[in-house]
Design brief:
By secondary structure, this protein is an all-alpha fold. It has 22 helices and no strands. Among the domains are: 78 residues; 231 residues, no CATH class. The longest helix is centred in the middle third of the chain and has 27 residues.
């Protein structure tokens, strides 16, 4: 066991033991303090990677009733009954089907032939493709797909220094593009659907698929080229000639014609997207149900795109257990009065809607520094954020949308699941990412404050 893991486990144990003896503080009861301690220990173990994510998630489900944070083991597992947990499974299943066909590479090839005159344009093409794919499937497998493409691309460099410098730019650009693309639709990120679910649960307000697209798409259209500009200026990828780009295209090994499986996946994906859009006017159509059924169709005889072994192997069980446990802990925080105490601690803001939205965006980004696991942010902060909106006389849907869009852009440091995929390749340091992404988060604060009030008026 590494020193970092031992330290993480030791700190987590000390936090849990300490929280057992903490008295009530202000509006937070003794059980509430114990719940906060459990959340802090949970996050410490995740950030230090002291144990596998699945193990951490299961251990804390067992600890919650044992330490009195939940009244029963069933209550500790309540997060696993939320639809978003099974949407996560379906999303990775759809992503697994897409990885079996060269659709993303086919789109990339078209863009490279049209615009890939140099390294910078290749990066832009990859970022655009990455964002588009991430709008309909989870950004985690999307990031993994395009990371593999980028690593193949940088092999064109014969000079080691040029290769590493360019790889650094691509390894930062791809997770950023994946997370920006996740803003486009509710299906683009589990964080979006968490926000919608929490809004319906605690405020009785819903956001339709088209309404979300109306908010997220323009932001992504602005953020992708801005992110690309920053990556080129700050990380300065080494140049390549047009001929070298064409050599990369030739070596991609994509068949000229689609086979039957690729056509089937395209048809199923188009139908799912059409149903998702139609759900904005037909309440009976549920976004998560469509994803679940769409994933199941991939298994049907005659379709045969997915099999059980592939589904189980390619699914992110870390994400499944993490989301379920996070929702359970968030539920305990609500039941034990912690969320209400946070809401009471935040001053009532009698300010205009743009300033309120900017405050929400800054609050989320600052909290992400302390709690760098984006999926935990929305269920924990939902009640306080809805209270802020209610006290200010603002639409809670806009506040929750701002929170989700900003939580989805969790890339100041490579600690969230998506940037960790490329960070693990060793091409950039912990602080390299912030050189560009700090400006992206500032841009998100400004854009949210300007655009979301306009969207609210259109709603």
């Amino acid at each position: 066991m590494k020193k970092k893991q031992i330290i993480g486990i030791s700190i987590a144990i000390l936090i849990i033991i300490g929280s057992m003896f903490m008295p009530a503080m202000g509006d937070v009861s003794q059980i509430g303090m114990r719940t906060i301690g459990m959340l802090a220990a949970f996050l410490i173990l995740l950030v230090t990677e002291s144990l596998p994510v699945v193990v951490i998630s299961l251990v804390f489900c067992a600890l919650m009733p044992l330490l009195g944070v939940t009244p029963s083991f069933g209550a500790a597992l309540s997060g696993y009954s939320e639809p978003i947990v099974f949407f996560t499974l379906a999303s990775f299943g759809i992503a697994a089907a897409l990885t079996k066909i060269p659709l993303s590479q086919r789109i990339l090839r078209v863009l490279l032939k049209a615009f890939g005159n140099n390294t910078e344009q290749v990066m832009l093409s990859m970022m655009v493709c990455c964002a588009l794919l991430s709008s309909i499937v989870s950004n985690v497998p999307t990031c993994a797909i395009f990371m593999a493409l980028a690593l193949d691309f940088v092999k064109l460099y014969k000079n080691e220094e040029d290769r590493r410098k360019t790889a650094r730019a691509f390894m930062i650009a791809i997770p950023v593009a994946s997370m920006i693309g996740g803003m486009i639709t509710p299906a683009g990120s589990s964080i979006n659907l968490l926000a919608i679910g929490q809004l319906e649960k605690h405020a009785g307000v819903s956001i339709s698929f088209v309404q979300w697209m109306l908010a997220g798409t323009p932001l992504a259209i602005i953020m992708i080229p801005f992110a690309w500009f920053l990556m080129c200026k700050i990380y300065k990828p080494a140049p390549l000639t047009r001929q070298q780009v064409l050599d990369f295209i030739d070596n991609m090994g994509i068949p000229d014609k689609m086979d039957s499986k690729e056509r089937k996946v395209c048809v199923i994906t188009i139908i799912m997207l059409a149903l998702w859009i139609l759900s904005s006017w037909v309440p009976a159509i549920n976004v998560m149900v469509v994803a679940m059924l769409g994933c199941c169709v991939m298994f049907l005889p005659g379709v045969d795109v997915l099999d059980v072994d592939t589904f189980l192997r390619e699914n992110s069980w870390d994400a499944f257990f993490l989301v379920g446990s996070v929702i359970s802990i968030a539920g305990a925080m609500i039941d034990n009065g912690v969320s209400a105490a946070i809401a009471n601690a935040i001053p009532q803001l009698g300010v205009s809607l743009p300033i309120l939205l900017a405050f929400t965006a800054v609050l989320i980004f600052l909290t992400l520094i302390v709690i760098p696991v984006a999926s935990s942010m929305i269920p924990i902060m939902a009640v306080p954020l809805i209270a802020i909106a209610t006290n200010a006389g603002a639409d809670p849907a806009l506040i929750m949308m701002a929170a989700a869009l900003c939580a989805g852009n969790c890339y100041l440091l490579p600690l969230d699941t998506v940037p960790l995929i490329t960070y693990a390749k060793g091409y950039y340091s912990m602080t390299d990412m912030a050189k560009s992404t700090l400006f992206l988060q500032i841009a998100m604060v400004i854009l949210s404050a300007i655009w979301l009030p306009i969207v609210g008026a259109l709603f």
